[in-house]
Amino acid sequence: MKDDVFDFVVYTPCHKFIQGETAQAFELAKLANLNFLWIPVVGDALIGRARSIIASQFLKLRMAPYMVFVDSDIVFTPDDLKRLYGHLKAGYEYIGGLYTVKTAAHSAHYGLGGQTVIDGKITEVKYLSAGFTGLSRSLLERMVKELELPLLHKDEWCECYPFFESQRYLDEEKGAIYISEDWDFTVKARKVGVKAYCDTGIRVAHIGTTAWTVEQLILKEREKRQASAPEGEAEKEKTECRNR
């Protein structure tokens, strides 16, 4: 296959099935003016290995300069995908959209007591979750070379470079912690000089018991502030909310 047939390739790692809302989002994206290929990858229960295999295959096949992860429980619009691709094309080598954890308790990029400023702008994040994330092929190439990543399971179905690993990590603020495979990728990216960014204007939904949105997270945080504020100030805030 000729190099860079597509502008970007979208991969969906999935253990059992893809949510109907996610599949519908891809059907809508196909109708938009976007030159991308969608590849669902079903069956591997080990998410770090699944992401590593996907990234390694992308690197090997060279079908596009950029790849995007859209997880099987993420709901997005064609504009979300178009905007993410625009950032990659503009030079951001590792950037994602904003979404909540499944319970909508906080942003997925929240980061162990940190905060995400939701202002519609691009912001640097310490750890980037991979549910709706784009990265460049050149970033993967530099990781392999500069971090001397070994090729594991050569010539087997699970052949991959260990780009994504859940493991212990010594955080400069929190001390010894256990990080997920996508946060580990963020650490590896920093080691080769690439920062992680989140576009807080890209707000995709994450399906848990319901499809939580960032707007619902904002509302929940506002309710928390009202509950902890002095009685007079809380009543004033409620009045202002009603008048909006």
Q: How would you describe what is shown here?
A:
It is built from 7 helices and 12 strands. Helix 6 (214-228) runs antiparallel to helix 7. The protein has helices at residues 20-31, 47-61, 78-90, 137-146, 181-191, 214-228, 231-243, and strands at 8-14, 36-42, 66-70, 74-75, 94-98, 122-125, 132-136, 167-171, 175-179, 196-203, 205-207, 211-212. With 244 residues, the chain is an alpha/beta fold. The longest helix has 15 residues, at 47-61.
How far the N terminus sits from the C terminus, by CA atoms, comes to 56 Å
The average pLDDT score comes to 89
Structural class: alpha/beta
Shape: globular
Taking all Cα atoms into account, the compactness measure Rg is 19 Å
β-strand amount: 15-25%
**Annotation, overall tally of beta strands:** 12
Report the sheet with the most strands, covering strand number, pairing sense and barrel closure. Answer: 7 strands, mixed
> What sequence of helices (H) and strands (E) makes up the elements?
EHEHEEHEEEHEEHEEEHH
Q: How are the strands of the biggest sheet laid out side by side?
A: 2-1-3-7-5-10-6
Helical coverage, percent range: 25-40%
